[in-house]
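Hello again,

I reread your note about wanting to compare the complex against the isolated chains. To keep things tidy I'm splitting this into two emails, and this first one only covers the full assembly. Below are the input lines as submitted, including protein chains and any nucleic acid or small-molecule components. They are followed by the predicted structure of everything together. The single-chain runs will come separately.
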Amino acid sequence: MRQSRRHRDPTIDLSSATKGEKMTIIEDSTAARLVQAVRAAGLNRTELARSVGAVPAEVSRWLKGTGTPTECQFNAMAIALGVSPDWLAHGTVPMRAADPPPDGAGIAARPIWDFRPAPRDGGRDFGNPNVWAFDPCPEVLVREVIQNSLDAAAEAGGRVEVAFRLIRLAAADKRDFLRALEFDDLREHLEAAAAGGQKLGALLHDGLARVDDQDLLLLVVDDRGTVGLTGPERGRGHFTALCRNNLDSNKDGAAGGAFGLGKAVLWRASRLATVLFGSHLSRPAEGRSDRRLFGRCELPWHEHRKSEYAGPGWFGRPAAAGAESIREDDERAAALYLDREAAGTSLCVVGFHDAASDRDRSPDDLARDLARAAARDFFPAMVAGRLAVRVEVYDGRREYDGRRPSWARDVEPDESVPAYARMLRAYRAGETVEQLGDDGAVASRPVALAVPERTADAGHGEQVHRAVLLVAAAGEEADDDGEGRSERANHLVAFRGPGMVVLRQSLQGACLGARPVHGLLLCGLAPRLIAGGAAPAPPADVAAERFLQAAEPPAHDRWTATPTLRASYARGCVSRLERFLAAATDGVRQLVKAPMEDAGDGPRSLKDLFRLGDERAPNDGPRVIEQSGSVDAAGRWAVGARVRLNPASTPTRLTPAVYFLGESGDGVAVAWAALEPGTPGCVAEDGGLLLPAGTREVRFTGLTDPRSHPIHALASCVRVEIKRFTPVREALS
Amino acid sequence: LKDIIFAYGTLEPPPRLRVVAVRLDGSAWPALIKPADSRVDLFEGKAAWRRAELDLELAADREAVGVFEAQHGELAAVAVAHAAPTMVRQSARLARSSCDRARWGGTLELDRDNFRGRALLRSRLTASVGGVAHRPVAEPAGWAVHFDEPAGLRLGGRLRVRWVDFRAEGADPLARQFAESTHVVAFRAADEPPELLLNASFEGLDDLLRDGERDGAGRGVHDLLRLGIARGVWLELVAVAMAAIRAEDDGGGARADWPAAEWQREVLRRVLPRVAPGKPERELLELAATEWRTNPGAGEFYARTEAAVGDMIGADESLRRLIQAREEGERS
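Full-complex prediction:
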């Protein structure tokens, strides 16, 4: 803390600032300057305590020099007293913050890096696990960033523009940036965390070395047409969801994202685990409507100057409860490459790199990856006119200020995914055909998704959604994923309303021997996204959109049996999903395979070997020929049954079970509380009956165990069936 | 409600369900109703219809209804069409006749887009039992509503076998890929039975397989060829059907269900009892969903399946006859 820099000095009287309490403190110390500032500001200790979120007794201790404020309290106190924090701490700069700083950087108020103190229970988290949840490649970063931008569109269905800018900083450019970042303060925490030796520590160590020795690469992402980082400093809103909180998506059911986990890839992509945010707000937040600047550093637990820190730290203006957004500091925003004119959000990944690669990659190389990933995963939103993406590379401040990138590309689906773009346009124009021919036309057919009953929140009954399957013949070059191309033949690509590709499924085997094809599956609100239309979406489309979103894991890269899906929909939902995906594959097969020329029926002598249906194999297993039952007062099923079986030459074990029956499916077997054979020579054991050799018929009675019932017995209907029948080696005694 | 135990009394005898009229897009199509088979063949109606309306009637024993209602309160009737291929259930409440208290009627509307293959049409009488409304108390035998022509299984009883020129431009892609092969099996949509395609461009194959009287070596070659084809094809059918068994682990242990496609269920129900004789159906399904699908159980399963299939199609018996005939020929 700053008190460690105190000097030994003559004493002064403090009675007026401390309600007449007599005390002696060291002159020219922090406490002495604090007393001086309190007097100058005309505040008493209660007022000062209130303004910094402390109690008066704490302020008294600071004034006496016997207590230590936190860094945050210290900075808040400087603001409340209208003095420079550096003056208050060291007395080495002029007292008033308004005085120009000696280094002449032109940056008005000095922000702070405010790291969260370690918890009182002594727990140590060596990093944010979310950071490690995803593959840290540029493709994943692009998915997460654009998905967030689309979800934050200012108007529902409105156009969003996203620009990825890679900026290489060297020499003076790097120095100016780091100064605006208050890097000296941040560096102390980074070094402390790097010294911790944990997994992230090694990466930080490498990052710090590179900051000193090499160029610094920034990835700045600007979006336009979005609401910006609205919301309060704390609590719920876009700002806190992105900048402060973990696992906070602040999104509704139709959004592309839903977990709030993906943003962690930003910090993973920074060699310094640091990401900055700048935003113009589309609507006021806490009475302020304009520019907002903030930053977050995602470190593990670390110890710095004898204080312990939990890990994360925030870059902002000092306030009583910790760092808060810097408002309307255009100079600093510009210095951090976060200056912007229209509503939306900018973010800056400091020390950007491809964390999935074991080699250093050039900015041009990274830029190509970003462009390719944007086309690959967001071509539906682009074709629909909802999204435009540009990627630029700048070498230094001069190129950036002049907006003269050394490399630039507007991502065009017609160039990167020409077949997919053509298929979607054909669908929008209503120019699809029913069967794939040789004329290059796009074939389409509906694929039914039976959305099950939704049991969670605003539930709904069963609905049938008709997804749209598009298939087109793939050219010879389709498998080439080289320069810019992101299409692969014999793959089915599926997406829903936001226009982001969720599923990429191989059609290997589905179209065995057929010509190569491209398949697109437009699900939920996706057909409306592409075809347009102002009418409200049909309820079945909305239901399918929510159903499929619930089936997406945090990476949003497939549809599967997620816990959310199981918790939100009626039993059987997983089967419905599987059937839908199987039906889509079948649909491709149907569209691809043309009807064959028939050369006549095969020989009857061969057909006779494929008899099905008419004749079932004789099942000589045991069968229940009589059953009855009732529910007793304890909620148990009391059943009795008679079973007939072919006599066996050895003893056998028969396992009967009571099955609770549902509307469909084979029912649920429940456990026995008691099982009693009614045939001489038979013995009950472990939920089964041991039968002597030669047994032809067995009777038994049983009571079920209510703890194993899926529903109350009175609400059920049941059937007695034979679950297992096996010979046993040992003879019955 | 046969073979089901209820926790309360049910209506006996059960009522009877009839489909009394069918309309496709508003036009009557009485010929589609096949009462003898409890079947409605919608695929025989006009092409590209959008909505079918089925008028239903449920008739119960008047006296039994009176007695039952005196004990349990008023009965209500509902009809449900359930299509497994699309997992769609469409229901309609049946209204009670004002002149006959044991008769209910109503119309079930089925949109073509929501159905494929076959739907099972069932109806139920429900009543309040023990203070709980809508408990099922009677269920008559159901009907089958065919939206698409059944592909020769239940009705035809055999897998479809066709001659196709494997070298022809429009041949199945798989056939074209293996243009020198005697046959391939074409698997289409999961719920549609596959077809056995015989290669019409394979010179001499037609002679060997053609139906007709043969003797001596000619008969032997004919039998060996068709039985060899059949054995391989059956193994393919079993492999596909095994892969289609639905196993779901919902935290309370794995639950298995037969494949959704009718032909796949048929294949397994025909073959599995021969693979493990004496086992109840439940146990066969459990084994098929677990042990027989994994290593090393799958090896033993297919070894047994091949033998079972050989037995099922009479391959061994045929070979024995051939050997016998050859020995007799040599003796004479």
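For quick reference: The longest helix of chain A spans residues 363-383.

B.
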